[in-house]
Amino acid sequence: MASRIDHDRLFKELLSTFFEEFILLFFPKVYEDIDFQDFRFLSEEIVTDVTEGGKYRVDLIVETKLKGEDGLIVIHVESQSQYQYNFNERMFIYFGRLYEKYRRKILPIAIFSHHSKRREPDSFSINFPFLQVLDFHFLTIQLKNENWRNYLRQDNPVAAALLSKMGYTEREKTELKVQFLFMLLRLKLDPARQTLIMGFFDTYLELTDDEEQKVIEEVRKMSGKQADKVMEIINSYERRGREFGRLEGRQEGREEGRKEGRQEGKLEAIRMIAKRMRERGEPILEIAEVTGLEIEEIERM
Known about the structure:
Blueprint: H1 7-17, H2 19-26, H3 28-32, E1 40-41, E2 45-48, E3 55-58, E4 60-66, E5 69-78, H4 87-102, E6 105-112, E7 123-128, E8 131-137, E9 139-142, H5 157-162, H6 173-187, H7 191-204, H8 209-221, H9 225-237, H10 239-248, H11 251-279, H12 284-291, H13 295-299
Helix pairs in contact: 1-2, 1-7, 6-8, 6-9, 7-11, 8-9, 10-11, 11-12
């Protein structure tokens, strides 16, 4: 069982799998100017901050055409465990280093996925009383500032996954999970993509066993084929845990089974990420470090 997962990597897998859906969801005007028939993902860039000596990884670089002209879209995820007061300056450094290398139009995007709401900068300026030397801007998404209910009608896999990172109260958690499941049903994804979305969602919306049971009870209260199909999704995701619970034949076994099933679902999402990294030829040691999987298991993929 993997003990941890790299949050940046999990976001990268989500956005690289559903890049077009991500742009359409948050930046519809940008979407109109991108040729989605002609784009590819470039290898990660390591940007060195010469003033502080730190090295930072730019999470996602997409080579594409913007209105017929070659360009880059750079997406950086500022994860829940990170916060830097000079983030806007760092984004400018990323931009400068990449422009120096590629010499083409670059559209920078920052995704803030912190636990709490806060105002984040979207520009960096250098001014004198007599001259404005620099006025650098970048697009931002501040997930915790987004109300999850505003995205329920979006038949978009990125919206479904990111519900778990948006603004909600503790009292809304079980309702959020129920609505997510019905949203997932409408998407009609293939099993691999469905596992990725569910694994991402469950990583960030952690429910107690009682809350998970309440989710199941709420789904069962609903009549009709849709409710039945949602239960099929839950059962498929937790099948190994459910088998364990049936073998135990006790309430404790069923509860443990549901918990085990959720863990297996998350593990399956991690394995899928490792498999994708393996197919891209990334080093086995790096895959093991990012996903927490054993090297022997990765070598068998």
